């Protein structure tokens, strides 16, 4: 018997168990093995291993799907890295990366290789059909100018293609083959000088690893740069992986892809792709049949035969990080993959993540910049910052905001009322001098706990009573932020009863057709005012939109989460970019009680650099990412005390064994302490050295694994995005 390590979808240690088979199965083969008396799908991870347990106890592999293509080595290496880096059982990481069909204990169909028709030598020597039979001539030309085309592509040229191909085959002019270089239509747009320069830089890196940060304001034509570079890669026969946030995978974008890459075999992978389809697309990418793979974070695990370029659009977007189970960051894995495949990777954004920006400043990434809007007439929005500190607000609206909405409605414009809902923990600040309350022990801002009359740090769990006056100016009237936007729609309806308002949030866009409906209504001028959260900030192009009102930006500036200002800035830039995508310059009004805050100055100037310099300087002072690295160890239980106890016990147990170089903060209850009937606490491990941090996290995991208390669940989040 030959012994094999099989990766299984089980939480036991690393998920690799040993099974026997009469002959060696190549690594990557899908198999079925018995596990706890049930057949389970698994992937051969290694063969000829020496068994760790008595040979008699080792069970046999039941079925090997040797007819299916094996999962390739580079893919297995990617999963090994992922499991190691994120401290997650390998077997479960592998199964996260597989599409449904390959997780099941039954065989799947391998996608048929496409058949390409091409003129052979004799064919090419023929006189083409006379031009007056123009459809027939067009088909001939299409064949003449290509390396080979599939029947569907030829039918798009001439609906009678099947019949003509039959004739020409009979005449001995055609050959068929299983692979051909894709046909790329010339772009309808001529790149401007900056776009051209950016694309050329990317092209000089073809065939080797090089990361780029493409920083370009909204509408500066980043997508056209990706397309241009992608077209060059595809023309050389290699594959392109294009990652983007789910919310940006809009019908508008897919139409642009379709227009540009109509004859390129493309797979679109997102959460709504049907399972069967996803499995087939996965396999066809793996076999090199699909050339352009577009998808959301999970597609970073798509095996590719011949990867030539990776693009990560809106690289700063939080949705690239998975926030449960395998907590991977797809953008970071994309860079790792590019290195593995020796190809360039382009991270693009109008508001890059500070991590990527820092790498571009230090030279680790090459910075490419697009500084102007591509569309000749498009203008930058005019941003106004309104100090509402002394104003009486009507459910969050200033009189100025209501007046602007009214005027815009009367002019027939469309407005957007934007609510900032993220990271909302109430905070205390001084309305006179703007003083905020930072933790005396660490870099976090403290949260206001009204009932306990306390300020608490959710990073290190420092607590103190609410002060009576502002420590910097003596003002006794301290204010809490974080309220007053519950009744936005009602307020609007009372104020402008004739205007048609629509709310856009996770609920109103949960169904497949919701966006389509929304677009239709907008196109038919059936919406005057959109009300929504960050969902609206991204990707969507509403030509008529010319006024944006931001009601409550401040919450983020006092947030205990040190990334909140970064997210706020990105959202404000994006949301203001929504105004005036077309010829009319849009207006943006931001209400705030802190008009002097650098974030607003940077938004007003539409200046990411300014923001980034400020924010990075602050992070550096406290060794926060990207200057240091973090891992969060979380525990949840029916009540937070049990979760805190559990973490405290391990902390005490490990204390004598922890070397220097890694700091520990907490445990502290999480900002959003309750989730799904459970309460959560966490400890932060922080270090300037990834290696030291990794080592300490491994020690923690070994201790966590000793947990026998069924009430307690724990998890590890490497490079956490939330506090
Ligand atoms: P971004 O991805 O940076 O937001 P897009 O690529 O979507 O920008 O471009 C914004 C708009 O400008 C789109 O309508 C696009 O068609 C147009 N555009 C981009 N590049 C050019 C160009 N070189 N010539 C003309 N129009 C362009
Ligand atoms: Zn603290």
TrEMBL record:
The keyword DNA-binding applies. Its EC number is 5.6.2.4. Zn(2+) 1 binds at residues 430, 433, 470, 473. One of its GO terms (biological process) is DNA recombination. InterPro entries: DEAD/DEAH_box_helicase_dom, Helicase_ATP-bd, Helicase_C-like, P-loop_NTPase, PriA, PriA_3primeBD, PriA_3primeBD_sf, PriA_C. One of its GO terms (cellular component) is primosome complex. Keywords: ATP-binding, DNA replication, DNA-binding, Helicase, Hydrolase, Isomerase, Metal-binding, Nucleotide-binding, Primosome, Zinc. Zn(2+) 2 binds at residues 439, 442, 457, 460. Initiates the restart of stalled replication forks, which reloads the replicative helicase on sites other than the origin of replication. Recognizes and binds to abandoned replication forks and remodels them to uncover a helicase loading site. Promotes assembly of the primosome at these replication forks. Belongs to the helicase family. PriA subfamily. This is Replication restart protein PriA. The lineage of its organism: Bacteria, Pseudomonadati, Pseudomonadota, Betaproteobacteria, Neisseriales.
């Amino acid at each position: 018997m030959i012994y094999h390590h099989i990766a299984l979808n089980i939480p036991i240690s690393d998920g690799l168990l040993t099974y026997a088979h009469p002959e060696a199965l190549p690594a990557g083969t899908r198999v079925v093995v018995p596990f706890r008396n049930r057949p389970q799908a698994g992937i051969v991870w290694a063969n000829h291993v020496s068994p760790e347990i008595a040979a008699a106890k080792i069970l046999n592999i039941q079925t090997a799907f040797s007819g299916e293509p094996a999962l390739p080595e580079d893919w297995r290496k990617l999963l090994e890295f992922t499991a190691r880096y994120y401290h997650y059982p390998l077997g479960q990481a592998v199964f996260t990366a597989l599409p449904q069909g390959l997780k099941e204990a039954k065989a799947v169909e391998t996608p048929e290789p496409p058949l390409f028709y091409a003129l052979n030598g004799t064919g090419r020597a023929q006189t083409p059909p006379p031009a007056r039979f123009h459809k027939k001539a067009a088909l001939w030309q299409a064949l003449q100018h290509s390396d080979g085309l599939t029947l569907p592509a030829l039918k798009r040229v001439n609906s009678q293609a099947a019949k003509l191909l039959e004739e020409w085959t009979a005449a001995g002019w055609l050959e068929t083959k299983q692979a051909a270089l894709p046909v790329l239509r010339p772009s309808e747009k001529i790149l401007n000088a900056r776009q051209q320069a950016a694309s050329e830089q990317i092209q000089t890196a073809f065939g080797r690893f090089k990361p780029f940060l493409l920083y370009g304001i909204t509408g500066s034509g980043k997508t056209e740069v990706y397309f241009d570079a992608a077209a060059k890669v595809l023309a050389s026969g290699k594959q392109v992986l294009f990652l983007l946030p789910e919310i940006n995978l809009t019908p508008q974008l897919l139409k642009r892809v379709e227009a540009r890459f109509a004859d390129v075999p493309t797979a679109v992978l997102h959460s709504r792709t049907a399972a069967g389809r996803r499995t087939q697309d996965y396999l066809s990418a793996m076999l090199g049949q699909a050339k352009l793979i577009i998808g959301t974070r999970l597609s970073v695990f798509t095996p590719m035969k011949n990867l030539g370029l990776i693009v990560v659009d809106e690289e700063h977007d939080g949705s690239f990080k998975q926030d449960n189970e395998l907590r991977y960051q797809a953008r970071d894995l994309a860079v790792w993959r590019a290195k593995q495949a020796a190809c360039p990777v382009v991270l693009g954004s109008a508001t890059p993540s500070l991590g990527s920006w820092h790498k571009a400043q230090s030279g680790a990434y090459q910075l490419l910049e697009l500084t102007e809007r591509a569309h000749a007439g498009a203008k930058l929005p005019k941003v106004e910052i309104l100090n509402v500190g002394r104003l009486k607000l009507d459910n969050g609206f200033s009189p100025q905001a209501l007046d602007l909405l009214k005027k815009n409605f009367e002019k027939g414009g469309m407005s957007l009322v934007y609510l900032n809902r993220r990271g909302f923990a109430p905070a205390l600040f001084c309305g006179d001098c703007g003083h905020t309350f930072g933790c005396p022990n660490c870099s976090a801002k403290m949260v206001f706990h009204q009932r306990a009359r306390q300020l608490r740090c959710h990073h290190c769990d420092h607590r103190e009573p609410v002060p009576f006056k502002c420590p910097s100016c003596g003002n006794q009237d301290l204010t809490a932020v974080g309220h007053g936007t519950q009744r936005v729609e009602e307020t609007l309806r009372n104020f402008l009863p004739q205007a048609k308002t629509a709310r856009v949030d996770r609920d109103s866009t949960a169904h497949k057709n919701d966006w389509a409906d929304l677009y239709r209504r907008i196109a038919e001028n059936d919406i005057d005012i959109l009300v929504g959260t960050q969902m609206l900030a991204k990707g969507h192009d509403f030509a008529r939109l010319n006024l944006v009102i931001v009601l409550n930006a401040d919450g983020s500036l006092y947030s205990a989460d040190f990334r909140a200002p970064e997210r706020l800035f990105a959202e404000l830039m994006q949301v203001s970019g929504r105004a005036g995508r077309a010829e009319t310059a849009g207006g943006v009004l931001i209400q705030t009680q802190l008009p002097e805050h650098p974030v607003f100055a940077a938004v007003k100037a539409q200046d990411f650099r300014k923001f980034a310099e400020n924010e990075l300087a602050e992070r550096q002072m406290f060794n926060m990412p990207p200057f240091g690295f973090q891992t969060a160890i979380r525990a949840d239980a029916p009540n937070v005390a049990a979760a805190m106890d559990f973490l405290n016990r391990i902390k005490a147990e490990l204390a004598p064994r922890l070397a220097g170089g890694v700091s520990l903060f907490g445990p502290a209850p999480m900002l959003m302490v309750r989730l799904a009937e459970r309460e959560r606490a966490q400890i932060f491990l922080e270090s300037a050295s990834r290696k030291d941090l990794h080592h300490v996290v491994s020690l923690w995991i070994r201790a966590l694994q000793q947990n026998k208390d069924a009430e307690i669940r724990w998890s590890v989040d490497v490079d956490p995005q939330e506090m």
